[in-house]
Design a protein that fits this description.
This protein is α/β, with parallel strands linked by helices and 115 residues long. The chain is built from 4 helices and 7 strands, in the order βαβαβββαββα. The two termini are 12 Å apart. This is Response regulator.
Length: 115
């Protein structure tokens, strides 16, 4: 698992996440800042796993998660809200709590590969 899809509406956090993933040996193959582009990329892009922000400018990323479930793509949520959104499948664990450190991201990515 090397190619990662990021769904994050904050450009600075997306860049930081991309740098952190690169440090861990992953490659960000796609990134989307809003629900519309995230759904399109989740449908049309090849990747191994995804990291989803829970809230995209006030919109839930749950539709993206549902599409990833349909495609059989593993993912985790990154959130400052404390939990995955209501209606999430149980396979969405782990939930990465913002702000996070490199070691926490590394741990979450390792757990993601075990799902």
């Amino acid at each position: 698992m090397k190619d990662i899809f990021i769904v994050e509406d904050d450009a600075l956090i997306a860049m930081l996440l991309e740098d952190m993933l690169a440090d861990l040996g992953y490659r960000v193959c796609a990134s989307a800042p809003d629900l519309e582009r995230a759904l399109a990329a989740a449908r049309d892009t090849e990747f191994d796993a995804a990291i989803l922000d829970v809230s995209l400018a006030g919109q839930s990323s749950l539709p993206v998660a549902n599409l990833l479930d349909e495609r059989g793509k593993p993912y985790i949520y990154a959130t400052g809200y404390g939990a995955a959104p209501a209606g999430s499948s149980p396979s969405t664990l782990p939930v990465l709590q913002k702000p996070f450190q490199l070691s926490e991201l590394e741990q979450a990515m390792k757990r993601l590969t075990e799902v």
